[in-house]
Here is the input.
Amino acid sequence: MKFGRRAPLLSVVVPVYDVADYLPACLDSLLAQTYRPLEVVVVDDGSPDDSGAIADAYAARHPEITVLHTGNYGLGAARNTGVAHARGALLGFADSDDVVPPEAYAVLARALRGREVDLATGSIVRWEDGALVEPPWMRRLHHERRTVRIEEHPEVLGDVFAWNKLYRRSFWDDHALSWPEGVRYEDQPTTTRAFLAARRFAVLPEVVYHWRIRSDGTSITQQRSSVEDLRDRWRTKQMALASVEAHGSPEVTEVFRDRVLAGDLHRYFTEIPGCPDEWWALLHEGVVALWGNRSLVHSGLPPVHRLTGWLVEQGRRSDAAAVMTYAARHPGPVPRHDTPAGAVIDVPLPDGAAPVPHEAVALRAHER
Here is the structure.
């Protein structure tokens, strides 16, 4: 369905919690959007600081902004509350410590004018210490303008973010989409379901979101060494994988398991040296559950992390810790050498360590 002469109302849901230092910049960026008509639904998730009062002050000056005050129920619940109150035919999300470029929603909305296009997604830049950098993997996923089905671009399932996308509200409601509540990393299960359910979706090369990486370590994505964080990560990965498997495409499932689901494991592997016993046991359990029948040696991880993944699968904790300690001390490509079976990485293991099979250390043609 194409838009009529009058542009449809676009609703942006903004959950707010303990972001008084960042919220004004976020709201200012939304008010500066070139797309109109626009409403901003701010959900104060029981914030302990002045965030709620800041949002109320903005709403008093700007009729586009509505503020809802709730108890502290978490990010997923706050987003769902905002959706329930949003009135627009188009639906987007923004996190309250980030910034949306002025043309972002206009660019995304234009892409939704196409026939049977249910959602549009654009690229992002990470904003850290004043520098804006487009992650290479996002640039790869968004390198050209495309309107496709999931079977034509399954790797886009790695674009798990809630906030660089725009949805038709009718599509959101028809497929009963919502954000998981009471769990971290709630973005991936929902965005996975959305990509799978969409008749077609638009992938855009334009940067539509500035993601702030906080240097104070308060972001939930910076707490990977906790058991609670890892447990939530495994839970949401299982939820997303279940949706992909139910979709029924072996090709999509293989790409998702190898190139998407494994994509962030290297950040957890770096936590192995010195990790608590309970955290290690949970890491081993999750890796075996998700990749035990296929092995991470087939994944898209870099060579040293494929090796580490294999060691985790085998329960070889001290060897995995040794590899990660070595990699931390020697940034960049690890040494390699040729064997009769092909090139392999050359990472020292502790004296007396059991042998490692060729497939766990093998280099692929593009890695040599």
